[in-house]
Design goal:
alpha/beta, 4-stranded mixed sheet, globular
């Protein structure tokens, strides 16, 4: 039997702007959008309080779940619970740092088996492009992965090798043939090798070890290879604002390139990071305040297309807070639950709107990565929503976050934007609902 839900909101973030609306969901799919007070025959009704907003369910396209193989770092159950708590209804899981990495069809099947019965939100899967697996790209693409992740420098995980620029070009020829997308961690291995490697607890020393030029040069090389091959490329976690003119020019030239940045690059500045505070370590690193402001400008002018968390957790001991040594601490920020409030909070000083956030964190990644039923409150889309009070504030208590290992640079920070309900395909879901599904491209 069909079931119908109507959600009435004085403020619903629609593709046309923020409007009052009665959104009708039938069997998990949005089937109509009516005036807020329209008479609708429904099995259930949700009335969004006037101080709250109905957002489309968010899509986080960059999450390291780490299952199978490193589930002590994270796992499908904890990662998707955290996503749900943050108003995210879909994540796409990276091919590392699970062990084995998702670089073969056999390993993809292991990922799918590991996820069964554990999902609080919908989950898609990336595959990997590493030295020697070019022949696997076509079979993986046929099985519905969303694209292929590669590095241009050491990944941090020995079993996940990086592509030199010549090999990257050859893989991009295959990516173009498939009409797939290559998502790329851009840092130049040669420049990193020549950078000073003096670590200890000094954040300034860590920053010097991964200079902006390493990121800029890798992006130059990727743009040139994409231009020559016609392949689609996506720049992951942009941290260097100096690359924005390169990206802008490439787009103007018709290069098939999209770009994301992350809530931590939009929130934190190098000047405020205490020595020894290894919870802030990530790669590329958090840069200076003027860089943070320039990244915001790149978002607002459309040079940067998406926001994604790059949730990259590890066990607390690997962050080496005991010594504060940035040289040996694992690099990654745990923030999948906090993306929306972090961006709402940091964006307030730049005039970012809820419509902007819905575009950056939902509709744009859904369009780029071929999720036609996700990303917007529109007829034909899945009935995925987040009910949010955009003005309500809270102090982050890492012990109350859902991700497995309780360490994050956001701990103790006051953020605004509280998620009161997450709705997945027309069903209000809590942390025990397990209503998520594995999804395929398209």
């Amino acid at each position: 039997m069909s079931t119908t839900l109507v959600i009435r909101a004085q403020r619903a973030v629609l593709p046309t702007g923020i409007e009052s609306a009665a959104v009708v969901v039938t069997d998990g799919v949005i089937t109509d959008i009516q005036p807020v007070d329209a008479a609708v025959a429904a099995d259930d009704e949700i009335v969004v309080p006037d101080d709250q907003v109905l957002l489309p369910g968010l899509l986080d396209s960059h999450v390291h779940v780490n299952e199978p193989g490193r589930t002590q770092w994270e796992g499908y159950e904890s990662a998707t619970r955290a996503a749900r708590a943050g108003g995210i209804t879909t994540i796409i899981d990276m091919p590392l740092n699970s062990d084995p990495p998702t670089t073969t069809v056999k390993n993809l099947e292991l990922k799918q088996e590991a996820a069964a019965g554990k999902l609080s939100v919908d989950v898609g899967l990336w595959a990997g492009a590493v030295p020697g697996n070019r022949g696997e790209l076509g079979p993986l693409w046929e099985r519905g992965v969303f694209g292929f992740k590669c590095f241009t420098a050491h990944s941090g995980i020995d079993e996940y090798g990086y592509l030199g620029y010549d090999e990257l070009r050859k893989d991009l020829e295959e990516i173009a043939r498939l009409d797939a997308v290559m998502i790329i961690h851009c840092e130049d291995a040669g420049i990193l090798a020549q950078a000073p490697q003096n670590f200890g607890p000094s954040y300034a020393n860590y920053l010097a070890s991964r200079p902006r030029e390493a990121e800029n040069e890798a992006i130059r090389q990727v743009i040139a290879a994409a231009r020559d091959t016609g392949a689609r490329v996506h720049i992951l976690h942009l941290a260097s604002s100096e690359a924005l003119p390169l990206i802008r020019a490439a787009k103007e030239d018709g290069v098939r390139i999209t770009v994301e940045t992350c809530p931590h690059y939009l929130t934190f500045a190098a000047e405020e990071i205490p020595d020894g505070a290894t919870e802030y370590k990530c790669a590329p690193p958090l840069r200076e305040e003027e860089n943070r402001r320039a990244l915001w400008q790149g978002l607002l002018d459309g040079t940067i297309d998406h926001i994604a968390s790059d949730h990259s957790p590890c066990t607390a001991d690997l962050k080496r807070r005991d010594t504060g040594d940035f040289g040996v601490a694992w690099g990654g920020v745990s923030s999948v639950q906090l993306g929306l409030p972090a961006v709402l909070t940091a964006g307030a000083q730049f005039g970012a709107t809820l419509s902007d956030i819905a575009r950056w964190f939902a509709s744009a990644p859904a369009a780029t990565f071929d999720l036609p039923t996700k990303g917007a409150i529109a007829v034909g889309k899945d009935g995925d929503f987040a009910v949010v009070d955009p003005e309500e504030t809270f102090t982050v208590d890492v012990e109350k976050l859902e991700h497995k290992n309780k360490i994050s640079p956001f701990n103790g920070r006051v953020l605004r934007g509280v998620v009161h309900q997450t709705i997945l395909r027309g069903r209000v879901v809590d942390r025990d609902s397990k209503a998520g599904r594995l999804i395929r491209r398209g």
